[in-house]
Each structure stands twice: as structure tokens, then as C-alpha cells.
Design a protein that fits this description.
Helices cover 43% and strands 8% of the residues. It is of the alpha/beta class and 366 residues long. It has one domain: TIM Barrel (Alpha-Beta Barrel), CATH 3.20.20.210. A seven-stranded parallel sheet has the order 1-2-3-4-5-6-7, with helices on both faces. Helix 7 packs across helix 8 and helix 7 packs across helix 9.
Length: 366
């Protein structure tokens, strides 16, 4: 599953207790026990990073410093790219989001606002489709040189499903699934092909040891559209990305909020290696581990609501339970149930990280 980094020294497992070591993540994904339980977040909002460091985040280098001091074994990075018309706030993992959030005015996203450039076929014909060969990947090379020894890079690709409905407009998208399925398929094909080619290039970048694909197709109760429509429109491109990732010797991590259980067997059949974030309102993670252990690793599940509003004692109790019940035997990486959003108090975030360090040493014993 693992391809060694193509630059930098080879990290030694457990060289330092708290130093970055991406092989902790690799071991966990392979159902082995590292020296301590790793933690991963798809995103830590810039205000939290800044409060944690006590200063502004103005560059990728600043973010790397945050990842190191927060105790992460990886750095999440995308190419400096986004489809025209996608709000910068959704471009987490790239400098586009940093630039948009410097004044903290572009943190939230309203899916009902926007120009919807692909709302019809006329818009599709006028849209300036990106050329994957013309995209700037130089930030990936910069990060590979900037991260310290032992820290690997998890490359990110943004969601095909989400970008399709955002660029179409959600009402137009839902209507199109029923009334003009060919056009919806055309949009998915165009966005999907670019995304697949992005993945093909990213998995070859130095120090990249995993691909993390983020795409929400479900609410807490059920998929947003019928399972068959998800299979038709999205999964062919996900399958191609998974094949590309595996051919490069890397694991494929899938982030999908909400109740993905109606399509879980499809995700397993396509070959995902890990599932994130296991939203508590939608999925019982303890039951899921019994079903998936030895097949697919699980990442996440510490409720964002708890991290936002909970007391330190309640956060500690919940983290202890997750570690005690999920960490033994590997196959689990702890994280929030979505991401570390800007409204999570930094004090609670510190409690969360400290509890992971306190209780996450292997062998797990509580």
C-alpha cells in the first residue's frame, strides 16, 4: 500500500515520541499498531491555527509550522487550483483558501448563492474548462522540501459531486437528475475527467504517501439523490482515481459526511482504504468497526458539537472511549467528525489533542 517518499531522508519509526512520522498513519491504515495513535484532520480553519500559534497564518510555511506544533504526522496539500466559480472557502488544502481567509471574511459558504455558471447547456458551452497540464503544481514541490523529516504529504482532490451541483446550482442539479440526466452526466464527465487527471499527477509528487478524496453526497439521514444516481454519476470517476492511487502504491482515503451506509458496499467494492469522518448522527462507529475491521480503516467520529460546546471533562471522556474501543489492533485514526471549524474554541481543541497524546500510546491500556 505504501510508496516511499521520493525526496528527503527515510523516517525511522518512533524516533521521537512526539516528532512527525507518517508511517504511524500507514501502520494504522494497515491494521497495525504504531507507537502512538495518529490523528488526522481534513481541515483546521485558519482562525484556530492562528489562535493555536498566537500569530497570523500568511503562508503555507506558517501552516506547516502549525501542523508540526499540533502534533500531526502529515501535511494536507492540494495543487493551487480550483474550478472557476467554486468559492475559495471550499479550496481548503491550498493557498487559494489562505488568500481568501486572510481577513476572515470568507469563512462560510451559502450553497443557495452564486452565479451557477453551469446551470444550463449554454453556460456549459461558455465555461473555461481547466487543462490539467496547465495547472500549477509547484506548491507540491515546495511543501515536499519544507516539511520536516518524517512528515509525509497527503495529497487532496476536491469533490466531483459537490463541484457539479455547486456549479449547476442545487435546484438545477436536482431537477436535472430527473428531467435532463444527460446534461448532468455531461457536467460530471467534464469535472470528473479533470479531477482524475489531477489525481494522476498528484500521486507522483515527492513525499506524497496517500490521496484524500473529499466529496459529500449524503445528509445525516440518507444520500442527497438516489443511490443509483450516485452510482451512475460519481462512482465511475472515483473508481478511476482509486485505481490510479493504488497503481502508485498509495492508499485512498475517502471523506464523505452523512449516512453513506446505503452505498457502503459500493465503496468497499471500489477499493477505498479508509473512510472518514463517520458522522455520529448518521453512523455508529463502534458497530462499523466490527463490520469493516481488516477491510477498511476508519477515521474520525469525535463530534464537532462536542468539541464546540463540551466541557474539557466531557471531551476527555469521549476521546478516552474512542481510543479504548477503537484503537487496539490498529485500523483507526482519531479525528473530529468533520473538521476543526473556526467556531471550535482553541482551548477545547488543545484538550482534544492533549487527550490523544495522553491516552493514545500503544499498547492501549486504560
Amino acid at each position: 500500500m505504501l510508496r516511499e517518499p521520493t525526496s528527503g531522508g527515510e523516517p525511522r519509526m518512533g524516533e521521537t515520541e512526539h516528532g512527525p512520522d507518517y508511517t504511524r498513519i500507514v501502520k494504522a491504515l494497515n491494521f497495525k499498531e504504531p507507537d502512538r495513535l495518529p490523528t488526522m484532520e481534513l481541515m483546521v480553519d485558519l482562525p484556530v491555527q492562528e489562535q493555536f500559534l498566537g500569530r497570523k497564518i500568511a503562508s503555507v510555511g506558517d501552516e506547516i509550522e502549525f501542523y508540526i506544533k499540533a502534533g500531526y504526522d502529515f501535511f494536507y496539500q492540494k495543487a493551487r487550483f480550483e474550478f472557476p466559480g467554486i468559492p475559495p472557502v471550499l479550496s481548503f488544502g491550498s493557498e487559494i483558501r489562505i488568500d481568501a481567509q486572510k481577513d476572515h471574511t470568507d469563512i462560510s459558504f451559502d450553497p443557495h448563492k452564486g452565479e451557477c455558471p453551469l446551470k444550463n447547456r449554454e453556460g456549459f458551452a461558455k465555461y473555461k474548462w481547466p487543462d490539467p497540464d496547465a495547472i500549477d503544481y509547484s506548491n507540491m514541490d515546495y511543501v515536499a522540501k519544507a516539511v520536516p523529516e518524517g512528515m509525509g504529504i497527503v495529497a487532496g482532490v476536491g469533490g466531483i459531486f459537490a463541484r457539479s451541483w455547486i456549479l449547476m446550482g442545487f435546484k438545477n442539479f436536482c431537477s436535472g437528475v430527473l428531467r435532463d440526466p444527460d446534461y448532468v452526466g455531461q457536467v460530471f464527465e467534464a469535472i470528473g475527467n479533470v479531477s482524475v487527471e489531477l489525481a494522476r499527477r498528484l500521486v507522483k509528487k515527492p513525499k506524497v504517501f496517500a490521496l484524500w478524496y473529499s466529496d459529500d453526497f449524503a445528509h445525516a439521514d440518507a444520500p442527497m439523490i438516489s443511490p443509483n444516481a450516485v452510482r451512475k454519476y460519481l462512482f465511475p470517476y472515483m473508481k478511476r482515481m482509486i485505481e490510479i492511487t493504488h497503481n502508485a502504491g498509495l492508499p485512498f482515503i475517502y471523506h464523505g459526511c452523512g449516512n453513506v451506509l446505503p452505498l457502503l458496499d459500493d465503496l468497499l467494492a471500489m477499493g477505498i482504504d479508509a473512510l472518514h469522518p463517520i458522522e455520529p448522527k448518521a453512523i455508529n462507529i463502534y458497530e462499523l468497526k466490527e463490520k469493516l475491521y481488516g477491510k477498511v480503516a476508519i477515521i474520525g467520529n469525535v463530534a464537532v458539537d462536542l468539541l464546540t460546546n463540551g466541557t474539557p471533562e466531557k471531551i476527555e471522556s469521549d476521546v478516552k472511549e474512542h481510543i479504548q474501543r477503537l484503537a487496539p489492533g490498529g485500523g483507526y485514526i482519531i479525528s473530529s467528525s468533520n473538521s476543526i471549524a473556526y467556531y471550535i474554541p482553541v482551548e477545547n481543541y488543545r484538550v482534544f489533542l492533549n487527550c490523544i497524546r495522553k491516552y493514545g500510546k500503544y499498547p492501549i491500556s486504560m
